[in-house]
């Protein structure tokens, strides 16, 4: 079992930068190649749905964004817990750089959901449990991104943001199970059902390919932002040290 000291060893900024420098190109190019295959397959080559017609193509963007919005927030909550409990050196920075990306994918989830809802439901928006809980998730992402940047003391901002992230995690089960707990317009899960997926393989496979590509792109973007934040912090520390030496000299 990893103890706090081991976690700190794995989170050493120098080791992180060396590892990230090796992983980043592979992650980025994997995302590019996956999306280069997945998006034409989904948006151009896959057949229209027998009920939804061509509108089903919106779901190739909407569903992966929904998964990333929830999975990313779970990662934010885990990183926040690590930052609060173990004072993980990189956890605060990673969470700080994760929240704007999470807010962006949640916004895309809401926007594409509205585009799909208009022809399917006859309205851009309804205040049902699934849509409302995802909107709350979007505000939680925005709240974290704003809160960690709202204080002159970066450590205090990170701590407040971590507390908000952990409190907001109670919304994740609501998002996931809202269609089962309440009567909503939003359809229940089609891909993750235990008995069998509710989608034909001609739609399921390109959907999963898009999910893989967008997940790789999400990870690559968060990693790149975290690398840049670590390097920026190191540069500022060097500048501060140089200024102190100059004052002493």
Description:
The chain has 249 residues and is mostly helical. It has one domain. The chain has 8 helices and no strands. Helix 2 (13-45) runs antiparallel to helix 8 and helix 4 packs antiparallel against helix 8 (201-248). The radius of gyration is 21 Å and the shape is globular.
Write a concise synopsis of the structure shown.
The chain has 249 residues and is mostly helical.
How are the SSEs ordered, and which strands pair?
Blueprint (H helix, E strand, L loop, with lengths): L3 H7 L2 H33 L13 H28 L4 H31 L7 H19 L6 H15 L2 H11 L19 H48 L1
Helix pairs in contact: 2-8, 3-4, 3-5, 3-6, 3-8, 4-5, 4-6, 4-8, 5-6, 5-7
Main location: membrane
Subcellular location: Cell inner membrane; Membrane
Pfam families: Cytochrom_C_asm (PF01578)
How widely separated are the two ends? Answer: 48 Å
Helix content: over 70%
Q: Report the radius of gyration as a whole number of Å.
A: 21 Å
Mean pLDDT, to the nearest integer, reads 87
**Tally of strands:** 0
Low-confidence stretches: 1-5
| Strand fraction | under 5%
Largest sheet: none
Class inferred from helices and paired strands: mainly alpha
Domains (count)? 1
Task: Please work out how many helical segments DSSP would assign.
Answer: 8
Tell me, what's the shape?
A: globular
Q: Give, in order, the helices and strands.
A: HHHHHHHH
Domain Cytochrome c assembly protein: 28-186
Function: Required for the export of heme to the periplasm for the biogenesis of c-type cytochromes.
Main location: membrane
Protein name: Heme exporter protein C
